[in-house]
Amino acid sequence: MPSKGSQFCLNVWVRNKAAVVKSQAWEQVGDNVFGDVVGRIANNFVPDEEVVQGVAEAVLGDLAPELAKKGIHATAELVFLQSNFFVLLVEVRSADFQRMAENGVISRATAHLIQCFEFLPLVARRPLLSSVLCSVAEGLVPELPDEVQADLARRGGVDARVAAAPIADQAAALFDAVAALRQEELDRQRKNSLKQAARDFTGQKEPTLADVTQAVARRCDADIRRTVDFVRDFLEMADCRGPPTVALEQAPSAAAVGDSSLVQKR
After folding, report:
1. According to the lineage, what is the superkingdom (predicted)?
2. Contact residues for 102 (Cβ-Cβ < 8 A; gap 6+)
3. What are the tens digits of pLDDT across the range 135-170?
4. For residue 3, is it left (φ>0), alpha (ψ between -120 and 50) or beta?
5. What would the pLDDT profile of 76-121 be if each residue is shown by its tens digit?
6. Comparing C-alpha atoms, which of 45, 6, 266, 22 is closest to residue 134?
7. How many CB atoms lie within 10 A of CB 201?
8. Which of 22, 104, 125, 168 sits 20 to 30 Å CA-CA off 114?
9. Is the alpha carbon torsion for 165, 168, 174, 175 positive or negative?
10. Please, what sign has the CA dihedral across residues 141, 143, 149, 152?
11. What is the CB neighbour count within 10 angstroms for residue 18?
12. Of 171, 109, 185, 103, whose CA–CA distance to 143 is shortest?
């Protein structure tokens, strides 16, 4: 049984989900205006995971046969998928070293040396072959991502970022990837909140910058008008009251004058 050292992970990020959906729509209804419309509508309803699942299945279907052409017999399985990111666990189980030499994967001298292991007892041969398979897996880590990325772009028009990591390093790679996905989700939620606020502010289903600008202008214009109306009403109320009046001191009555004269005579 192959050791853990002959396993590695293939990490894939799909970066153009909308283009993939449009390409699938073109395959169904044709590369025309109708296909563009169908693709645009489907892109709003098809979740990222469904599109990425299809990409992962395509990679799984092609990976083992392509490696077999080089003389490498490997298995691959989908072990993680979230949003636009998925992980394949690849395991090198055996190798045809003669074919690998013919394809230039290893030198012929190395192939002949490995074939000499067949004359060794099984107890001694097994750890040596396991070590060789680990070396084969290590050799695929830097080479395979570029091949998978180019194959996805050529066959399905998929813009993907592909990276491979040994099992020992995969935990850190997966942690970083999940953290990045979490940040993208938070940014998406924040963007949706702002978009909803713009919808409420403008009354438009899909507001543009021009819609927001016009809504702000209307709101400012309404506020200015209310201020002007308030000042005008205040001034009109002041005009209706007229100028302020001063009360004149009441003149003394005749009786009071008479009483005052009597007091003076006495």
Report:
1. Eukaryota
2. 71
3. 889 989 999 999 999 999 997 789 999 999 988 888
4. beta
5. 999 999 889 999 999 999 988 888 888 887 788 878 877 777 777 7
6. 6
7. 14
8. 168
9. negative
10. negative
11. 14
12. 103
Q: How many CB atoms lie within 10 A of CB 116?
A: 10
Residue type, 149: Q
SS (H, E, C) the chain: CCCHHHEEEEEEEECCHHHHHHHHHHHHHCCCHHHHHHHHHHHHHCCHHHHHHHHHHHHHHHHHHHHHHCCEEEEEEEEEEECCEEEEEEEEEEECHHHHHHCCCCCHHHHHHHHHHHHCCHHHHHHHHHHHHHHHHHHHHHHHHHHHHHHHHHHHCCCEEEEEEEHHHHHHHHHHHHHHHHHHHHHHHHHHHHHHHHHHHHCCCCCCHHHHHHHHHHHHHHHHHHHHHHHHHHHHHHHHHCCCCCCCCCCCCHHHHHHHHHHHHC
Structure-block tokens of residue 152:
């996805």
Enumerate the β-bridge partners of residue 95.
Answer: 72
Residue length, the chain? 266
Amino acid at 73: H
Is pLDDT at 74 greater than 70 in this prediction?
A: yes
Specify the pLDDT at position 263: 45
What band does 262 get if pLDDT is binned at 50, 70 and 90? Answer: very low
Structure tokens at 75: 């298995």
Q: Count of CB atoms within 10 A of residue 143's CB?
A: 11
pLDDT digits (tens, 9 = 90+) for 36-73: 666 676 666 678 888 899 999 999 999 999 999 999 99
Whether the pTM exceeds 0.85: the reply is no
